[in-house]
Amino acid sequence: MLLGQKIELPFRHILGAFLIGRAIGFFLPSTAGLDGYKLYDAARLSGRTVEVTAGTVLEKVLGVTGIFLTYLIALPFGMSIFGENASLIASITVPVALGVISILLTILWFPGLVQWIIENVPLPAKQRIQGIVTRISQATAAYRDKKGLVLMMLLMSFFVHFFTAAMYFFMAIAVGASADLAFWPVVFGSSIQIFATVIGPTVGGIGIREAAQVLTLGSLLGLSVAAVSATLGFWVGEVPTLFGFVYWLIRDKDYRPAYCRVDGVQVDYEESARRATELETEEDVALRVSKTASGSEPLPQPQRFLTATGIGLGTGILAGIVIGVAEAWVIALGGFGDEAQVLWYGPLAYAVILGGLAAVGGAVLSVLPMQKEEVRAWVPALGLTATLIPFGLAILIFRLRRDVYLEQMPPLSVLLGVLAGAGILALIFLTLGRKFFGSRAGIIARPGPALGILAAVMAVGALAASTISPPDLPRGSGQIPSALAQRPNVILVMVDTLRADHLSCYGGTVATPNLCQLARDGGTVYQGFSHASWTKPATASLLTSLLPSTHRAMSKPSTLSPDVEMIAEVMQGAGYTTGGVVSNINLADSFGFNQGYDEYYFLGPAYLAGAEESSSKLILYNIVRAIWFNVSGGGIRPSDFYQDSNTVNDVVFEWLDRNSRERFFLFVHYMDPHDPYFRHPYDGHGIARVSNQHPDADLAAEMHALYNGEIEFLDANFGRLLDRLRGDGVYDQTVIALVADHGEEFFEHGGWWHGLTLYEEQIHVPLIIKWAKGTEVPGAEATTAPARLIDVAPTLAAAAGAQIPDAMQGIDLRTSVNSRNAKQREVYSEEDHEGNVLWALRTGNRKLIGANEGNPRGLPTQEFFAIDVDPHEEQPLELSAHAGETGNLEQHAELHRRGAEGEAVAEGEEAEMSYEECEQLRMLGYVDDCEGLR
Q1: How confident is the model at residue 280 (pLDDT cuts 50, 70, 90)?
Q2: Is the pLDDT of residue 910 over 50?
Q3: Does residue 532 contact residue 538 with C-beta atoms inside 8 Å?
Q4: pLDDT band at 921 (very low <50, low <70, confident <90, very high)
Q5: How far, in Å, CA of 20 to CA of 13, rounded?
Q6: What pLDDT does residue 113 have?
Q7: Percent helix, strand, coil in the chain (nearest 5)?
Q8: What is the pLDDT of residues 642-674, one digit of tens each?
Q9: How many whole angstroms separate alpha carbon 365 and alpha carbon 375?
């Protein structure tokens, strides 16, 4: 750095100054000690304080660039540490990192541009610091013709930070992490931790470093290993530099280096020490005084600090209001459900965060010798640029990726357009914004008016939210209509994340006497299969009898179209009283799952910070929640995530108190087997996906045991439901269907949880239907073919004597297997989730699975299994050796998909096909008629 400014000092001296600075910095925040001592040492010897400062700034630029390069290089291999949030985090951080690096490299490569900006662009208090600004611009341009030197420094910066991040990998192994620990995820997470340490305000980064390591790598390393490796890794790197104090002691007060040359000339050390304190020449001072009018002196520092901090607070509040209102509006477009708290909660939450950040920014700006008018103009202009634009940009890119492009990054042209728009907005803030805030209208950025605006926005939001309230509970007649007297009640029970192979009536080892009681009471045990491996698309298929490509509820923000006809609407239309009780956010009213219910209850978790369901959709809330569950480290409760079967039963029993004497349809959803897996009785111990995305393989046994305990807990509460039905005298008159939306993986195929594969442990689900007395029951052969979730709704509707809608794609499972066509004998599953575009076709004894190239889960593009001899899909068959069979199954899967897309609801486009192609579909039972294509 010094050579670039034509300042030459012996390497031995520079090494000593570096070690002394690191030793001092060990006891100061961030790199303040190191930077401060190096600047002091070089400036007093050379007399070139501004030039040394410019070199130090360039060093910081290179340092940040090196950290961001390490982050980006490790990201493709290590982003898996964020699990299902990986795409979200990448979509936000990659554009930011690339933008920062681009700006920093521009500064390094084109210092003349920086010089021009410094000399020509308006700056706060520029007139009063003109001499310093001029020297800074000249110092910045010193590297104009030294691009080789700059590249060498950049390369050194990258190596320093990359190998420091790698050092944390070996430290993690040293303190107890598995020897099989993957290298890249730790390097990736450690690069984030290093950045947090550098910018952290605590002494030596204490606390910030450990929190960052736990947040990023806690799920991979374990909380204790992550924290300890962060602390010890820092000490390993820092303790040797404490020898800097030895250098300090060796150097007496008369110490001088062997030489210090500036522009090739040896300096006079006493003259240099004097000049180091004079940042402006006498000519600069005289020129500044002559240009400064009387009465235009800057505000005194204490008053400037209070004014700038206050205006920064007000500016951040305004930025928070804008973002909060915008997000509330986006959430409103998707539907609120029974409450709209976000209308006032959103602006408040963002105002608190951005207000605090902008207040800190205002305090930092107060070091500049600004007048009152400059404070009022510059602080809000810069505050909005530093808060509204980056936060708004991150949220916009995230919502484009998730809501518009369905978990995929927007095209480059869209991203460039968004970034260009952000740049234009920044220019507006820094030009017209300064004029606006410098006028009388700028009073809105002061704390009082800004808080008043926030209060007004919250009042309006609260008033609007108060108009949205749960409907009054209906009061039925308490009598069964004569037309329904001979028809049964219908209860559909869906258990979230319940594998079929764990129930005792499916040959499992978990004792489930109550769940399997349905079979003992004359029920039919089917081999059930789901059409997706996560809740929203799977449950939508269950309740609509439509494949995912038809109902289109396949992404996180997607809602069920009002055009679909759900089983509750069919039953309601047949005269039934309908009720639903669910406890998974994917099934909330706001996602359209409440269609057709007289009463529908979404039992949400106990949200953090006083939030309710609508507010929990804020991006800020989700970030804070993820951080909280990663760093809290304490005990967790089911209500932090969902309401357990005890609570569900309480609501169900209250509903039965009002409606059991009528003819009813009831949908009951239990969440217990879903993670977190809790120990029973509850003691605060649980293993949650949100804080443990990639558990160690040796956790499989404990996780499986906890999962089994959750099933037993659910079974006991399901028994309470059956007892209640018997006590009400309606058990025998009720058709009860027990099903799951999907299963769960315990490292059978190298992964955990659900939603990212279509193997048997994910889509083979229990399906047991207990028939009411007098109801037609299926023959024994009806269970010899796979049963699909889309078959459940038609079966229940037919059992209740209701008309099965033509749009439903399933069949009545009581029909003879021999009468079913090819389509009805096959299970087609599909999903497009977090970048994994998957499909599977399962017959009675074969299964073909397809996946997109480069999918994040790392699945093969095709796998073929003989299920009859390899039920756990452990030995995929050679594709080339079974080309004919796999080709036939692949064609059938394509026909399933095209047929489903051809019937897509709402905004879905119809698939184009020729008459000949349609005839292929019709011959296999995929469509009914092709005459319209002749």
Answers
A1: low
A2: no
A3: yes
A4: very low
A5: 11
A6: 73
A7: 60, 10, 35
A8: 899 999 999 999 999 999 999 999 999 999 999
A9: 9
HSE, side-chain direction, 13 A CA sphere, residue 55: 23
Q: Enumerate residues 6+ apart whose C-beta is below 8 A from 610.
A: 345
- 102, exposed or middle or buried, with CB in 10 Å at 0-12, 13-18, 19+? exposed
Cα-flanking dihedrals φ and ψ of residue 691, to 5°? -115, 5
pLDDT at 919 over 80: no
How far are the Cα atoms of 76, 195, 613, 716, 924 from residue 689, in angstroms, in the given order?
21, 26, 20, 25, 41
Backbone angles phi, psi at 806, to 5 degrees: -65, -30
By three-state DSSP, how is residue 491 classified? strand
Closest CA to 495 of 641, 647, 638, 672: 672
At residue 3, what is the residue type? Answer: L
What are the DSSP calls for 543-604, one per residue?
HH---HHHH---STT----TTS--HHHHHHHTT-EEEEEE--GGGSGGGTTTTT-SEEEE--
Buried b (16+ CB within 10 A) or exposed e, 609-619: eebbbbbbbbb
Using 50, 70 and 90 to split pLDDT, how confident is the model at 291?
low
Contact 513, 504 (CB under 8 A): yes
pLDDT on residue 927 = 47
DSSP result, 534-558: SHHHHHHHHHH---HHHH---STT-
CA distance 76 to 72: 8
The lowest-confidence range among 257-266, 328-337, 623-632, 672-681 is 623-632
pLDDT above 90: residue 58: no
Of 365, 400, 405, 399, give the one whose Cα is nearest residue 382.
365
Q: Is the pTM of this model over 0.70?
A: no
Rounded to 10 deg, the angle between the 86-109 and 147-174 helix axes is: 150
Both tokens of 837, joined, read 């575009």
pLDDT at residue 915 in the model: 56
Distance from first CA to last CA of the chain, Å, rounded?
77
Upstream peptide bond of 681 is cis (omega within 30 degrees of 0): yes
Q: Per-residue pLDDT for 926 more than 50?
A: no
Burial, 55: exposed, middle or buried (Cβ in 10 Å; 0-12, 13-18, 19+)? buried
pLDDT, residue 124, reads 76
Cα torsion 705, 708, 709, 710: sign: positive
Q: How many CB atoms lie within 10 A of CB 138?
A: 15
Cα 850 from Cα 836, distance rounded (Å): 10
Find tokens 């000490």 and name the residue.
235
Higher pLDDT pick, 30 / 343: 343
Quote the mean pLDDT of the chain: 85
- The values of phi and psi at residue 841, to 5°, are -125, 125
- List CB contacts of 151: < 8 A, sequence separation 6 or more: none
What is residue 924's predicted lDDT score, i.e. its pLDDT? Answer: 46
786 preceded by a cis bond (ω within 30 of 0): no
* Distance (Å, whole) CA 79 – CA 83: 8
**Counting Cβ atoms within 10 Å, is residue 464 exposed (0-12), middle (13-18) or buried (19+)?**
middle
Q: How far is CA 169 from the centre of its chain?
A: 25
Q: What is the DSSP letter of 239?
A: G
Q: Is the pLDDT of residue 295 over 60?
A: no
Distance CA 861, CA 853 (A): 6
Give Cα separations from 777 to 525, 737, 796 (angstroms). 12, 13, 12
- pLDDT in the model for residue 368: 80
User: Which of 180-184, 503-507, 603-607, 904-908 has the weakest average pLDDT?
Assistant: 904-908
Does 70 score more than 70 pLDDT?
yes
Q: Are strands 577-582 and 664-670 parallel, antiparallel or unpaired?
A: parallel
